[in-house]
Amino acid sequence: MIFAQRAEKEYKRIQIMSKAKYIFTIIVLVGLAYSVNGQNSFVDYQKSFAKIADVFRRKEDTLRKQFESKKLQWPAKYVYIRSFKYDSQLEVWVKNTAKEDFKLFKTYKICAMAGSLGPKRMQGDYQVPEGFYYINEFKPNSAYHLSLGLNYPNAADRLLSDSLAPGGDIYIHGSCVTEGCIPINNDQIEELYIITSYARAMGQEYIPVHIFPVQFNNARSVSYLERFLQMYKTYRPLATTLQSAYDYFEKNKQVPVAMVNDRGDYAMQDLPAKVAKEPIANKPKREPVDKKIPIPEDELAKVVNNQPVFPGGTKAFQSFLENAGKELAPLLPEGQRAAYIVIDYIIDKEGKPVYAKVVKGGNDDLNDELEKKFENMPQWKPAIRQEQPVAMRLKQTIVVEATP
């Protein structure tokens, strides 16, 4: 009797274990199926828009054949995009494993480019950014047919651009019109949208887009850049860093890793340093002045409900900046037509400017005068946090430019 009871218990235990294994097997299989389907979930989501479904229907087979003709695997798991402002080119590079070299799929002609060489530093300057970005938005219902958004302002831009209005909404898009974006034609943006959608679906969350001033292997373009740098010397460090990144990719066919230091400069990991040579002026050096911040750091608000307001508002502040830039132009070094200067300043809880310090650009004499202008600004409306006035540190870019 006891043996029979034990045998029955053992039989039930085996049945329970068998069911558990069966359930586990189903869970694993469902999980694997979900993982496989999950790779295409982003593409499926994009296809839920009628316009995108039509684009895939019309374009995907042609794209697959183009990849096959170039001995490229479809779809590409990794995508890298390079844009060249002066040359009006946008390159699309692809590969399918992390270790293999990128291969060029196609070069698109950019329809039009607003602005000039150099970075974007403020809203409304119509500049296309320069530097290291990635796609952070797929916009199927774009006013410009289709759009791929870039993460401007990035970490460097947030340190160096206008603190109140750095600008934004930078896209690669169709329709061949621009106000500071990268426009290509509708057929091209459809191809690029499909290629990047598949890469995103297969796990490439940050599709790099590097924007260069020129094609550095084009002698005519480099010659133009050199002439431009003679007029805008403060732009040379950024241009030199961008060329280092360009050279690295040309040699290795791998995307360089870009970091940002606390001054907003790009620091390229594992790249040989390129030092931009500048003429040394025969001018006596001045000892640096250690300006003390009059308000303790913990009393400077980081987050506020309302930003400080210049008397007269934003338009009046822009007029102040423009006038200051014109008045200080005679202090530019000989042969330099413009300088982009970044200045830190503090508006205390009474609305009084109490501190100003140039953190990038300019020269000793110019920076001294600019700091004086900021410290002698009229009284502002102070920042407000939780209905109380607070002191706040701000950062501002100002363009000092000689009149042609």
Describe what you observe in this structure.
It is a single chain. This protein is α+β, with helices and mostly antiparallel strands. It folds into two domains: about 60-260, L,D-transpeptidase catalytic domain-like (Beta Barrel), CATH 2.40.440; about 295-400, Fusion Protein Consisting Of Minor Coat Protein, Glycine Rich Linker, Tola, And A His Tag, Chain: A, Domain 2 (2-Layer Sandwich), CATH 3.30.1150. The chain has nine helices and 15 strands. The protein has helices at about 1-40, 40-45, 50-70, 155-160, 185-200, 220-230, 235-250, 315-330, 365-375; strands spanning about 80-85, 90-95, 105-110, 130-140, 145-150, 170-175, 180-185, 205-210, 255-260, 265-270, 340-345, 355-360, 385, 390, 390-400. Strands 3-2-1-8-4-5-6-7 form an eight-stranded mixed sheet, sandwiched between helices. It has a three-stranded antiparallel sheet with strand order 12-11-15, covered by helices on one side. A two-stranded antiparallel ribbon has the order 9-10. A hairpin with a 2-residue loop joins strand 13 and strand 14. Helix 2 (about 40-45) runs antiparallel to helix 5. The chain is globular, with a radius of gyration of 28 Å. It starts with a helix and ends with a strand.
